[in-house]
Design a protein that fits this description.
The complex is a heterodimer of chains A (about 375) and B (about 280).
Chain A lengths: L2 E9 L6 E10 L4 E5 L6 H9 L6 E6 L2 E2 L10 E4 L11 H11 L4 H14 L15 H13 L5 E5 L7 H18 L2 E6 L2 H7 L2 E6 L2 E6 L1 H6 L4 H6 L6 E9 L5 E5 L2 E4 L15 E6 L4 E4 L6 E11 L3 E8 L2 E8 L9 E6 L4 E5 L23
Parallel strand pairs in A: 3-8, 3-9, 6-7, 7-8
Antiparallel strand pairs in A: 1-2, 1-4, 4-5, 9-10, 11-12, 11-14, 12-13, 14-20, 15-19, 16-17, 16-19, 17-18
Helix pairs in contact in A: 2-3, 2-4, 3-4
Chain B lengths: L4 H28 L21 H9 L2 H32 L5 H11 L4 H19 L7 H26 L3 H8 L4 H30 L2 H6 L7 H6 L9 H35 L1
Helix pairs in contact in B: 1-11, 2-11, 3-6, 3-8, 4-6, 6-8, 7-8, 8-11
Classes of the chains: A alpha+beta (about 375), B mainly alpha (about 280).
Amino acid sequence: MRVVLKDLVKRFANSDRAAVNNINLLIEEGELAVLLGPSGCGKTTTLRMIAGLEQPDSGRIAIAERDITNLAPKDRGVAMVFQNFSMYPTMNVYDNIAFPLHAVKMKRGEIDRTVREMARLVNIDHLLGRSVRQVSGGEAQRVALARAMVRRPQVFLMDEPLSNLDAKLRVQLRTEIKRLHQDTGATFIFVTHDQEEAMTLGDKIIVMNNGDIQQAGTPHEVFFAPRNAFVANFVGTPSMNMLTGAVSQDESGGIRLQLPGFDLSLPERFSRGLENMTGNRVIWGIRPEAIKLAAEPGENCAPGEVELVEALGSRDLIFVRVAEQLFGVIVDALESVAVGDNCHLHFAAAQMHLFDAESERSLLNNLPSAVPPSQWGGG
Amino acid sequence: MRVPRSERILAYVILIVMAILVLVPVLAGSVTAFKPQIIWVSSPPTWIFEPTLENFEFVFFTRKGWLFLRNSLIISIGSVVIALILGVPAAYAFARFRFRSSKALMQWLISLRMIPPIVVGLPFYAMFLYLERGLGVGLRDTFPGLIITYQTFLLPLVIWMMRGYFAELPAAMEESAMVEGYTRLGALWRVVLPVVWPGIVATAILNFIFAWNEFFLALILAGNRTSTLPMSAGTYIVRTRVEWGNLFSVNLIIMVPVIVLTIILRRQLVKGLTFGILE
């Protein structure tokens, strides 16, 4: 089912800033959309408004072209998995999964069949008789998943369901959620502050900050074409190197960027965005993966010294000082870089990002818009 | 945490002294309850005697103690039931919703417990008198009248204790049930109450003890028809003498349920009593 949020606003009494500040969003039927952002960015509030657990101050919410803004949570046809709650403590696993079915007065035999089927889907059929004290955190979250699926909702809402699990379980359950999404074909809206989780799960990632949507797009779009400095900085680990510099022009008319300690020639694709910006300050960004170590100086290179080496496994994250700035650089672990080595950093022109220093908006030409305004209708 | 030996010894000394101070009169009195009238006040006190139940028989049958026991049970249980019916939902609301002056209301509720009973009792007496004369609604010396009055000290306690139990539960518990097809009341009934059930029992018992021990409000507002056990104990202290054996046998009848309930519930009681402090 398609989910549409239109001009949604939510303020809380104890804060003068809107928790959710007039957001518009379209989530297509069957999509797995991830609301991503730091804590307090409004992602959970947005999800809770879709669930009906918070009432928006203004704006509309529609699921499958039906306006549900004023419906009770139980009448919205959604299911939800919470971060800090997974099982009703007075019921065993079986009764937990059956619980939503009692609300619709389903027949006993049918309940039994459905409960067993759902338990099998999330691999907890051997736990059905257990009490809440006898299941682990990961198993409890599977119970919550089964309970969410049992009424076969068209929209699944997940509020950081994996945050309280240890790293290995998190990855494992993440895969299962992805599989459930494929098997059920339902619309999933998943909230997380973990950008790796967002990347691996999402068909669409909606990056939020301060109650606003910063960017909505595919994982590739938000990673490779961030619309502003916030998205560029928030998405990707290790995070993007960012420096403030000034735009200048060389004798042949090419655009250059003066950065502390070195300068660069900017590729053609920035020319339109930088028109009449000579002398202006901009934020230049480049990901650690887009920097190569070079033996000799050359165009778009800067000399530096290795200050720190962090092993990531097959690759190392090294920190190289260039003038005042430390650059994070990803190198192959076999390259055997050592602290104190002198090297030249080569910045790949194709993977440079530029943002206006004031508005922090990307200066790239023709950025794809993830949600064309024309589609905001409906509801 | 390791407590130094010297401090531990000091603590025990203080506790033993306090226990002696509290328990000796209770024990001496309780022994007197089983003494025949002739040695109630013998000097020096008689410690070895053939115990008798004649004092109990006297207060229970001759002086209608069974009636006072019945009245005390009706009033205490009735008050607790009403306090729970009103207080549990109120506590839930205080735990889950932020509304205008909800904090101030909570403070006001706890301040009600600091008011001496006479400040409550006399206005209630006046109101009951007014209702009786003006509207013909008789509440003086009735069970409903006393049960209503007892809410002034039971309801705040129920709300404070139960709010603590509710606040400990994640809100997501009801929210999950609400998304899964239940109304908030349905979620409260099917999911939350089963979890806080032990808390409700603890609250009920503590409140029962308070209502059961209550003396002053009953003295002002009860009469012949609704006299409670503590009031009946007072009748054994007359101007010229004290009927010690009878008085202590009534006291024992009052004390035994309290002691039994306290022993059963001592862990929850400490928790319930410290809620306000930890807040």
